[in-house]
Amino acid sequence: MLEALRHTPLDALLRRLEPDEMLSLREIRVRVGRPVMARVGEKNVFFTGRGFALEPLAGAETVTAEYCQRLLDALTKCSAYAYEDELRMGYMTLDGGHRVGVSGQVQCRDGRVVRLKHATGFHIRVASAVPGCATRVLPHLTQGARPLSTLVIAPPGAGKTTLLRDIARQMGAKLRVTVIDERGEIAGCTKGVPSHDVGLMTDVLDGCAKAEGVMMALRALSPDALIVDEIGGAGDVSALEEAARCGVAVIASAHGRALEDVRLRPTLRGIINARAFERFITLDTPGGMLGVFDADGRRRGM
């Protein structure tokens, strides 16, 4: 993570963390008028002039608008226009798959975001590989040698991407897997080369829109399974339905706390009711596995 933030205003702050704390770093929050905050393991820490504290201290250094501009310039290498499409959606992805959510003043036209006008907050989510985290569920995701289409359901920050990354790693050791990594978070590619281990037989379409990536993979990569993160749009669903008709398993994720939450989403209701997914996995916290369910919603043994 430190390498991705080298030459940014955050570099010096993060060097105050001990090596074991760096390994436990989960996220960094930068907001104008408040001190920089990080989540280390299960605790929040606030950076001060001399180190960090568990509570915000009176007189602690606070972030300025100029600090945020310098951070944005460093993250975009002074080429914000190159990240314009991502920033219009409120985020950008750093090498290694670290996701940066950006808040502040946006400029809209006809109800659509045109550009980010002033960045005043950053939420940096640290992409961390957890090899082996999918081991418990993998036996439920295959039938013989055939991978089963699976939907991972969890609220934001509960570990969906981390689980998909390890499913790709383990499943891709034996099967042809294609990861369609629209936001670069699963494989964490740099110039198309994954920085995370996503499997010996895994191909990655980095930065590719999910709907287009599915069709590209079906035409040219002959996958046994496709892995995509955070589906939801009608185009995504249509492409995944086409993959299912072609006999290719789809392993995807969606926001929610339970299967019923996802059923209520109009774009996903049809594909679920059509039993396109043969397995469902629910998570509630990072590493907190609630259960594995079949197409009828019946819990399977864990």
Structure in words:
By secondary structure, this protein is an alpha/beta fold. The protein is 24% helix and 30% strand. It is built from nine helices and 17 strands. It has an eight-stranded mixed β-sheet with strand order 12-11-13-14-10-15-16-17, sandwiched between helices. A seven-stranded antiparallel β-sheet has the order 4-3-2-1-7-6-5. A hairpin with a 2-residue loop joins strand 2 and strand 3. Helix 6 packs parallel to helix 7. The longest helix has 12 residues. The chain is globular and about 60 Å long. It starts with 10 loop residues before the first helix and ends with a strand.
Low-confidence stretches: none
Total strand segments: 17
Distance between the termini: 33 Å
Oligomer: single chain
Task: Please work out how many helical segments DSSP would assign.
Answer: 9
The portion of residues assigned to helices is 10-25%
List the helices and strands and how they pair.
Layout: H1 11-14, H2 19-23, E1 25-31, E2 37-40, E3 43-47, E4 52-53, H3 65-75, H4 84-88, E5 91-93, E6 99-109, E7 112-125, E8 142-143, E9 146-147, E10 150-154, H5 160-171, E11 177-181, E12 202-206, H6 210-220, E13 225-228, H7 234-245, E14 249-255, H8 259-263, H9 266-273, E15 279-285, E16 288-294, E17 299-300
Parallel strand pairs: 10-14, 10-15, 11-12, 11-13, 13-14
Antiparallel strand pairs: 1-2, 1-7, 2-3, 3-4, 5-6, 6-7, 8-9, 15-16, 16-17
Helix pairs in contact: 6-7
